[in-house]
Write a structure and sequence with these properties.
Helix content is 43%, strand content 14%. It folds into two domains: 3-95, Phosphorylase Kinase, domain 1; 104-280, Aminoglycoside 3'-phosphotransferase, Chain: A, domain 2 (Alpha-Beta Complex). The protein is α+β, with helices and mostly antiparallel strands. It has nine helices and ten strands. The longest helix is centred in the last third of the chain and has 22 residues, at 244-265. Strands 1-2-3-5-4 form a five-stranded antiparallel sheet, with helices on both faces. A three-stranded antiparallel sheet has the order 6-8-9, with helices on one face. The radius of gyration is 19 Å and the shape is globular.
Amino acid sequence: MSAVAVKSRRLLEEACRRIGLPASGAEPIRIAGNAIWRLPEGVVARIGRHHGQTVAERELAVARWLTDNGVRTVRPVITDRPVIVDERPVTFWLELPPHRPGTAADVARLLKQMHQLTPSPSLGLPPLEPLAKPRRRIAAAGILTPDDRSWLQAHAERLAAEFTGLPAGLPFCALHGDAWNGNVAVDESGTAFLLDLENTCYGTPEWDLVSTAVKHITTATVTRPEYEEFCSTYGLDVTSWHGYPVLAAIRELSMVAFSLQIADEHPHARSEAQHRVDCLRGREGPRPWTWIAVP
């Protein structure tokens, strides 16, 4: 077990101790930015990042709000507040039945349901700020050369200026914030569930559609027929909107910045992170680019 996983398990055991839940037999599902553990009795624990209490509280509130409004999503259990251990929030969720990742059409179907809802002011959804995380991750990335860091920061500044001048699009609504097929699970009956609610915010719904378009155009991991079904299910092809190039470029930068953060935590991801930087800088030829998943 890696040092990161050992530390994560220690946090998990302390959180479980505080609420009287046994942690023996816990198995890691994913150890990355947010660590996810499977516990006995059908419970999944999610360990957020440092100082992430506000985000974790919003995740729990959004999950309850979506469930109350008929949108299938993960459901909190055991406690309705995060347990804070060493400034990291730990939340507990009902484990989903056996499932597979969603299709592009599954993503579109859930987004359409969510975008049609009117969010309660009590949710405290923050405004969409798609460059906030990439900027922090680029500034903190340990593997970047000074030249690459300078270029990425300047690129982020250019995109920030363009984001403020986006053309009018669909009416603002509650957003998932990181909508892609990996954040949708489909059980054996075909029921789709929306996962990973930490980026939920309020803004232009086109942002939730851009990720699948980028997977089609930039990384070719969504086929043309799959993308056409996505557009047909939602009722819009976001690539026809004049603001698409800006949001797509921000999404690409976000994917690069995420890989940089993971590379600092998991050295085996460094080559992929550098490859993504090289793609963005024009060193690897035109799109589509071959990007492999990082933990």
